[in-house]
């Protein structure tokens, strides 16, 4: 398999649009390609999947970790693997240093980089910009092998960029996307939820040299990693998973891990008012966008069965949006209050600005990510369910764990398995 990482000079340079355009072009050229996403993002992989029809997995050096990133790549069956980066090429998890950056991942995977550059308002100035990125990356052991120009004004503009790069012996212009290309819709957490029918067709606005593109990829030669050890703790357990437009933030690797552990997975939709599946031993309420469906959720027929499940002292893991369903009210950004399940005493209020962002890790080793625009109120009577140096320690009630954190289950199988087995 051949591998490349699509990085950008900065956030907002158009990586995701270019990524989707590349996936479309490669598929139209008959190339077999698997997609991946650097970091903990949920939405970009869903857009990838809407194009390829295949799950897109997260890979990084922080939450997923090198070992599991290698596993994901080694199990891919495509001829090419294209990884979408995060933020700018050199931007790390803390804002200081490169740990967790796209560069960090490219280095440890031995992947070459395809750099997206927003060339609006420039021509010759692209040279020192690209030159600086190439020199800095090379000093860290990473090769930038090609350039994709975004927001290009015309074919003549693209030819200027191509010529300037060639004359100054910089990486070649592999592809370019017109400034009037389709734009992906956004909302406060980033891109909106995609459906296959919603993905724009970039082909008329995207110009790519497929033969040149394939030369950017390098043969993947990562160290062989054994399969994730199976604890066997969940064998034969039936785990109910809330999965719909509300509860949609589900890492594919989490589902794979639960199945590898021998759990039987059954899915249901709180948005559709479906009951918690009968005979379930544990429940996972995944995160998502409950605020977008608050009115519909306020009338959901799911809540009585959910309360009965929790009161029966069965294990429940509720993450972010899934946690928000359990409170008394969800107060939206327009200050409208919507009744939720009413199982726990807190209420949740949407905020105009980002409340919390960052990787989270338990001392036991389980890793996850926190990213939300809401706050939880009136939860003082509930004890915390986690002990974190930073981030939301959540709340617990009976055998329920509820917090803003989205957990990456394979990061520590023994710990996560216990969440579906025993009391807090």
Explain what you see.
This protein is α/β, with parallel strands linked by helices. Helix content is 25%, strand content 27%. It has twelve helices and 26 strands. Strands 1, 2, 3, 4, 5, 6, 7, 10 and 11 form a nine-stranded mixed beta sheet that branches. Helix 1 (15-28) packs parallel to helix 2 (43-52). The longest helix is centred in the first third of the chain and has 14 residues, at 15-28. The two termini are 44 Å apart. The model has no long low-confidence stretch (mean pLDDT 94).
For the record, the count of structural domains works out to 2
Put simply, the count of helices is: 12
- What characterizes the major β-sheet? 9 strands, mixed
Q: What fraction of the residues are assigned to beta strands by DSSP?
A: 25-35%
Distance between the termini: 44 Å
Shape: globular
- Level of helix content? 25-40%
Second CATH tier, the architecture of the largest domain? 3-Layer(aba) Sandwich
Rg computed from alpha carbons, rounded to a whole number of angstroms: 22 Å
State the CATH superfamily name of the largest domain: P-loop containing nucleotide triphosphate hydrolases
Report the count of strand segments.
Answer: 26
So what's the CATH class of the largest domain? Alpha Beta
* Class per helix and strand makeup: alpha/beta
What's the mean pLDDT score?
A: 94
CATH topology of the largest domain: Rossmann fold
Low-confidence parts:
none
């Amino acid at each position: 398999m051949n591998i490349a990482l699509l990085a950008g000079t900065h956030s907002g340079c158009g990586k995701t649009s270019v990524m989707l355009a590349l996936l479309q072009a490669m598929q139209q050229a008959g190339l077999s390609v698997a997609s991946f996403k650097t970091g903990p993002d949920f939405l970009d992989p869903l857009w990838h999947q809407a194009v390829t029809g295949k799950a897109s997995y997260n890979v990084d050096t922080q939450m997923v970790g090198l070992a599991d990133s290698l596993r994901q790549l080694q199990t891919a069956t495509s001829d090419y693997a294209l990884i979408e980066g995060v933020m700018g090429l050199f931007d790390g998890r803390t804002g200081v240093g490169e740990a967790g950056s796209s560069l960090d991942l490219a280095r440890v995977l031995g992947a070459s980089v395809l750099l997206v550059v927003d060339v609006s308002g420039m021509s010759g100035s692209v040279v020192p910009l690209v030159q600086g990125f190439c020199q800095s990356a090379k000093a860290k052991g990473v090769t930038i092998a090609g350039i994709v120009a975004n927001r290009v004004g015309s074919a003549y503009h693209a030819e200027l960029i191509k010529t300037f790069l060639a004359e100054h012996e910089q990486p070649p212009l592999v592809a370019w996307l017109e400034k009037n290309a389709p734009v992906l819709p956004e909302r406060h957490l980033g891109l909106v939820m995609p459906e296959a029918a919603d993905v724009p067709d970039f082909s008329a606005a995207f110009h790519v040299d497929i033969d040149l593109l394939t030369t950017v990829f390098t043969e993947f030669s990562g160290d062989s990693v054994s399969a994730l050890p199976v604890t066997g703790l969940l064998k034969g357990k039936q785990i109910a998973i809330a999965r719909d437009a509300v509860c949609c933030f589900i890492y594919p690797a989490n589902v794979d891990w639960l199945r590898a552990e021998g759990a039987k997975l059954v899915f249901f939709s709180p948005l559709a008012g479906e009951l918690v599946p009968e005979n379930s031993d544990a429940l996972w309420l995944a995160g998502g966008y409950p605020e977008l469906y608050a009115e519909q959720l306020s009338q959901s027929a799911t809540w009585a069965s959910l309360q009965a499940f929790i009161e029966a002292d069965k294990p429940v893991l509720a993450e972010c949006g899934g946690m928000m369903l359990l409170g008394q009210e969800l107060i939206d950004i327009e200050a409208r209050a919507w009744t939720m399940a009413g199982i726990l005493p807190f209420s949740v209020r949407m905020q105009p600005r980002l409340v919390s962002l960052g990787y989270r890790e338990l001392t036991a080793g389980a890793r996850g990510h926190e990213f939300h625009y809401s706050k939880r109120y009136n939860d003082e009577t509930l004890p915390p369910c986690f002990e974190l140096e930073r981030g939301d320690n959540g709340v617990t009630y009976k055998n329920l764990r509820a917090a803003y954190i989205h957990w990456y289950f394979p990061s520590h199988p023994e710990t996560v398995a216990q969440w579906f087995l025993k009391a807090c």
